[in-house]
Specification:
This protein is an alpha+beta fold. It contains 40 helices and 43 strands. The strands form twelve sheets. It has a seven-stranded mixed beta sheet, sandwiched between helices. A six-stranded mixed beta sheet has the order 3-4-2-1-14-13, covered by helices on one side. It has a six-stranded mixed beta sheet with strand order 5-6-7-8-12-9, with helices on one face. Helix 6 runs antiparallel to helix 7 and helix 28 packs parallel to helix 30.
């Protein structure tokens, strides 16, 4: 810590944007703290300067504090009129408070809101400083002011709290054209040294003057960081190899040697890093504004005139005119800078990051309260966080690992031989390069380890597993507390602890996890849907809702469904270690790993540092949140509970620590007594795990359409759980009738907040491109609308609020008239109507889970159907009820090699057996074939794959058929040559999601056990003989031309997800086309775009915002042509809506569609651009853009129309009603 003299600027900005910019310039220039009253608000947000954070209340803030990032601060209070933070790392710090006292407040409430701050300061023995706009007058701080009652009460409050007033001199802090007075006060403790207090009398844009003074405060130490972006990794590898001296010949490992080898390896890495990326101080570079000469001149003139005005040498009119001009120039410069910034955005990530950051809270961690115990300093805050999230943790140091000794040879070596240097690098590659680490070794460093270092790490890993010990350095981790959104800032449970472990340890965890998953271990309950390969949150939701629908939608309507949603407190942090290990044994985790897992969970050292306050504790229970094994061990601990409770009509579904008990039956007393008994039994079971049930958050909901007269009591222990009308489960609100109206309202409100944030980037005349904004909508907003939509999209209602949400999004793409119909805008922009998009997402989700979920069918005769029945009916109509190609497998043992280089070396070795493979699809039917050439024989094979197979499946099956043909070959070199990059890359992965790829991988591995097998890529259709033969055979398989091959077969592979999505997409597009044809709106757009076509959207998305605006007007007809103006003024008879170029006898409506299809005036242009006089249907929408871009058409409206339609009337001309028939 360092004690520094910090400048403080205090000012009331009078809600002025110009005064705010001026204040920030002074603030950033002097790197001062700002105490501000009445700041300028932009949608309840205050502008944040670079290198600063702003502390404010959420809405309508009238006080805020600007804090530099190098100042540690704890939030003490944050209300509309009072904001206070505790600075400094010591137990006795300094509280800074900014406060605004409204003149409308009664005089006797002058200390309202400040007494709480004083209470904190008194209990914690902190010094305190207030920057107050008091609106109070007293001779104590204003010798020339007339005292009032507010001043008297303020004097009394200052005296009672043993404070002093730091105002010096008689300079007025508030100045108007008529008088000046002192209302801005600086009040502080007697022990606080406030010096150099001055009022800046230079002209400013607020009616309150700036106040400057200095204060002694503790600031952060300047921390150091490595700059990996400029590191020379070639030099790093050379230095690392020079330093390493690993003895890999000694098979004897002890606990001491393990610690020494880890220290030696890490020391060598650090020495090499010091050469290429040394630690250096982090400096925040303030953003430098581009100078504007006009603004500088206007500012200088204004200051000169304002000074002269106060000296009464210039008139008031002169002063106000100069001030008005200065503000106008400042607004223009600010607008131009913002416009340049917005139009420079070329990446959707910039917009998405802005939206996500705006949704997060930026307030510092505050002083916490728990059970009426209030913290008063940083040390108490961290202690309360530890006691809340890690009960039983103790201050102290790690115990030494027990002495153990082992020889890595024979059986012991064989048990850990699966740990190889290749797998280590593969595990490291799975981590993001810049991910935060618990130590100094980020993944980008580990990715550049040399082979020598990897071999050393391999031996350390093997010894660690064999000894059942984790090196002490890897057991030290950092804990970061992340605020939960929407939770109170002073509640310790509103912070989530995230453990940052060493990536050297996490890589070993990954390797062990992969090794067990390959064997299907741990064997978890089928009722657990979290952290288990092949399961998802969608499946958990469908399982619970399906059980609810069983009683709610039953044909006899005589059953109830009772659900109990259990809440387990601090599940991951408090579970006992022995409970996790016993569960791991029951789930068939090998005994070799049990001691290693015990070492992982016990004797862990965690360190937390918040605002310079640092505390370390030792943990012996819980699983670290952020660890690779943590979710698996939690699942193992509660696995037997899920299996035990799923019996006798009760279903217990688990998703991590979220558990649901459901039961359906006709007797309410049986339902309540049974589920209450099960809930109490679970409470006792989890107590043995070291956990507790939070009954205050546990919810019980009775799902029924009946009105029971008597409802039994639901008890858990001594607590009575009241029935709820709804429950929120995994982000979905399940109301008691499953109408989902509350859930739809919730996601609509959530989506609108994101859309309003996106709206900040677009304006009438400037903004990001339409293509970028559409991408942002699909990423940020539409994903929120479609979350878990397979559950609720079938519910009754036309989703009007969802349609309005989508319309709001389309308004951000380009300037759009409010009268333009939504259905027409969706066709123009290529955005699927929201109800069809939800159905599309629901069908795709059902395709992933339908083979694994147990579904309750209500039968065709049922009036109401469940969410899965509706989707199942569509699948039946589409012919998609067959088994899918999805699978979840992992195998890290590739015995064959894959070369996807685009310029591979040719194999001229005659000993190689070359197998050329290919897949094809012709006329909707797929086929595959392979051509094998050897010095002894040639072989050709074709296979017909049916109409639902994809070309990708054909490519993979061709390789598999070639490997099956050669399965009896031994001791040969075999190369498979394919022109499919996608197929080879799929086989080169370790995680397999396609059953076809998985079976091909297994066949290749079997062949590679006795042969040298290699797969390589070749370019297609360049005259390579083998590739051309394989292409011919694949096409023959598609066409069932059996005479083309030596062997011919037929095989129907399982339908792939790609094919399912294609059929779903076609189905949705057909429905959209039918709705478009039957729509009674957007008739003008329908005449131009009768068929749903993605080409129009591609054309529109390639335009600028202003060009897109004009095209929208032309395509919708909502423009300043005569017909639309005639409609706009309610079809008045004295206005002529017909085309002025056509003859009187035709009387055609003056619309863009008429100009394109009928008007003789534009016949030469139509012939030149479209090569026809009536361009319908339009196949190239770029030509349509060119036609509407003709200068004559652009000027047509402005020639005949003014802003007011009544000035454009043609008196005496009888109107002809427009033709509304399509």
């Amino acid at each position: 810590m360092a004690m520094e003299i910090i400048s403080i600027i205090q000012q009331n900005l009078a809600h002025s944007e110009e005064a705010e910019d001026e204040f920030i310039d002074h603030l950033v220039k002097s790197q001062a703290i700002g105490l501000v009253q009445e700041p300028y608000l932009r949608k309840n947000k205050i502008k944040q300067p670079p290198g600063y954070r702003v502390i404010q209340c959420g809405k309508e803030a009238r006080a805020c504090i600007y804090l530099p990032n190098n100042i540690n601060a704890w939030l003490v209070s944050s209300t509309r009129d009072v904001v206070a933070v505790l600075t400094g790392n010591s137990e006795k710090g300094t509280i800074l408070c900014s406060s605004y006292h409204d003149r409308k407040f009664p005089a006797n409430e002058i200390g309202y809101g400040l007494d709480t701050i004083m209470e904190y300061a008194t209990r914690g023995q902190h010094k305190i400083l207030f920057g107050i706009d008091s609106n109070a007058h007293s001779i104590l701080w204003g010798p020339n002011d007339t005292p009032n009652d507010r001043g008297a009460y303020m004097e009394d409050w200052i005296f009672r709290n043993h404070l002093k007033v730091d105002n010096e001199g008689d300079s007025a802090t508030f100045v108007s054209s008529r008088y000046g007075t002192v209302v801005d006060l600086t009040i502080s403790s007697y022990t606080l040294d406030v010096s150099q207090w001055t009022v800046d009398t230079s002209p400013c844009l607020s009616d309150h003057r700036r106040i400057f003074y200095t204060l002694h405060l503790n600031t952060k130490r300047s921390f150091k960081r490595r700059n990996f972006k400029e590191a020379n990794w070639a030099t790093f590898k050379e230095e690392l190899d020079k330093c390493l001296n690993h003895d890999d010949q000694n098979p004897i490992w002890t606990s001491l040697r393990l610690e020494q080898e880890v220290s030696k390896l890490e020391s060598c890495i650090i020495l090499a890093l010091d050469k290429v990326a040394p630690l250096c101080k982090v400096k925040v570079k303030p953003r430098i504004k581009q100078k504007d000469d006009e603004l500088s001149s206007a500012r200088a003139l204004f200051k000169r005139i304002k000074r002269a005005y106060h000296q009464k040498t210039v008139s008031f009119d002169r002063y106000t005119s100069v001030k008005r001009e200065y503000r106008r120039i400042m607004r223009r410069v600010s607008r131009d800078r913002y416009t340049d910034f917005i139009e420079s955005i070329t990446d959707s990530n910039q917009i998405c990051k802005h939206v996500k950051s705006a949704e997060k809270t930026n307030s510092p961690i505050g002083l916490l309260n728990k059970d009426n115990v209030k913290t008063v300093n940083g040390k108490e805050v961290i202690s309360m966080l530890y006691d809340t999230h890690f009960p039983g943790s103790k201050e102290g140091l790690l115990r030494d690992n027990p002495d153990r000794k082992i020889t890595l040879a024979n059986e012991t070596l064989a048990s850990v031989k699966f740990i190889t240097s290749n797998k280590i690098m593969e595990a490291i590659q799975t981590f993001g390069a810049g991910k935060a680490a618990g130590d100094d070794f980020k993944p980008i460093v580990l990715r550049n380890l040399t082979q020598k270092a990897l071999n050393c790490l391999k031996d350390i890993y093997r010894a660690s597993v064999a000894l059942g010990l984790i090196p002490s350095k890897w057991k030290k981790s950092r804990v970061v507390f992340i605020p939960k959104q929407g939770k109170p800032a002073n509640d310790p449970k509103s912070l989530r602890p995230i453990t940052l472990n060493s990536f050297l340890l996490k890589a070993l965890e990954k390797i062990l996890m992969w090794h067990l998953e390959k064997k299907g271990i741990p064997r978890l309950s089928k009722h657990q849907f979290a952290f288990k390969p092949g399961t998802s949150i969608d499946e958990a939701l469908s399982t619970v809702v399906d059980k609810i629908e069983k009683g709610l939608l039953a044909s006899n309507r005589n059953e109830y469904t009772l659900c109990c949603f259990l809440d387990i407190s601090g599940a991951f942090d408090n579970v006992k270690t022995e409970a996790c290990l016993d569960g791991a044994k029951r789930c068939d985790v090998p005994n070799l790993l049990i001691p290693w897992l015990r070492s992982l969970l016990t004797n862990r050292e965690v360190t937390t540092e918040i605002n310079g306050v640092k505390q370390t504790r030792v943990l012996n229970c819980g699983t670290p949140q952020g660890g690779v094994w943590s979710p698996k061990l939690w699942n193992c601990a509660i696995n037997y509970i899920l299996d035990k409770e799923n019996s006798h009509g009760v279903t217990c579904v688990g998703f991590a620590d979220d558990m649901v008990l459901t039961m359906t039956g006709p007797d309410l007393h049986v339902l309540f007594s049974t589920l209450s008994y099960r809930a109490n039994r679970i409470k006792k079971e989890i107590a043995t795990l070291g956990l507790s049930l939070n009954t205050s958050k546990t919810e019980v909901v009775l799902y029924t359409n009946k009105r029971p007269k008597v409802i039994p009591t639901f008890r858990i222990g001594e607590d009575i759980i009241e029935l709820s009308t709804k429950a929120r489960y995994l982000g979905v609100i399940l109301d008691r009738h499953l109408t989902y109206m509350e859930h739809v309202n919730h996601i609509v409100a959530k989506t609108k907040r994101s859309l309003f944030m996106l709206r900040n980037f677009v304006y009438r005349k400037f903004g990001p491109s339409p293509k970028l904004m559409r991408l942002c909508y699909t990423i940020v907003a539409r994903t929120k609308l479609s979350y878990a939509c397979h559950i609720w999209q079938h519910a009754k209602g036309d989703h009007e609020d969802l349609v309005k949400c989508q319309r709001l999004a389309m308004l951000t793409l380009a300037p759009t008239g409010r009268s333009m119909p939504t259905i027409g805008l969706e066709v123009i922009w290529g955005i699927t109507p929201i109800h069809l998009h939800l159905q599309k997402v629901a069908l795709a989700t059902y395709g992933r889970i339908k083979n694994r979920i147990r579904q309750t069918h209500f039968g065709q005769e049922a009036k109401l159907k469940g969410h899965l029945d509706n989707l199942d009916d569509i699948y039946r109509d589409l012919g998609l009820l067959d088994e899918t190609d999805m699978v979840t497998r992992r195998d890290n043992n590739n015995l064959y090699t894959v070369n996807t280089d685009k310029n591979p070396d040719t194999y001229d070795d005659p000993d190689y057996i070359q197998v050329y493979t290919d897949g094809s699809k012709i006329n909707g039917y797929a086929g595959c074939g392979f051509f094998m050439q050897d010095k002894l024989e040639l072989h050709q094979a074709s296979e017909h794959l049916g109409k639902d197979a994809t070309v990708f499946q054909g490519e993979i099956l061709a390789i598999q058929r070639g490997a099956e043909y050669l399965k009896h070959i031994k001791g040969r070199k075999i190369t498979f040559i394919s022109d499919s990059q996608a197929g080879l890359q799929a086989l080169n992965q370790r995680a397999f999601k396609s059953k076809t790829v998985w079976e091909c991988h297994r066949t290749l591995n079997n062949l590679a056990r006795n042969n040298h097998v290699n797969l390589r890529w070749t370019k297609a259709h360049v005259g390579t003989f083998g590739n051309e033969q394989a292409d011919r055979l694949a096409k023959a398989g598609s066409l069932k031309q059996s005479e083309e091959a030596d062997t011919f077969s037929e095989f129907i592979p399982p339908i792939s997800m790609a094919e399912i999505k294609t059929k779903i997409k076609n189905y949705i597009e057909r429905k959209w086309q039918v709705e478009w044809e039957n729509a009674d709106k957007a008739l003008h757009t329908w005449r131009l775009i009768p068929n749903i076509n993605s080409n129009i959207a591609k054309t529109m998305l390639g335009l600028s915002r202003q060009e897109a605006k004009y095209m929208l007007q032309m395509l919708t007809g909502h423009c300043r042509y005569r017909y639309f103006q005639w409609v706009l003024i309610k079809k008045k008879r004295h206005f002529d809506p017909t085309c002025p170029f056509c003859g009187v006898e035709t009387k055609k409506d003056d619309t863009p569609c008429h100009a394109l299809l009928e008007c003789d005036r534009w016949l030469p242009e139509r012939l030149r651009i479209f090569n026809t006089d009536r361009p319908k249907p339009i196949d190239d929408y770029r030509k349509l853009r060119d036609f509407f871009g003709l200068p004559g058409l652009r000027n047509h409206a402005s020639t005949y129309l003014q802003k007011k339609p009544k000035c454009l009337t043609t008196v005496g001309v009888k109107c002809v009603k427009p033709n509304k028939v399509k």
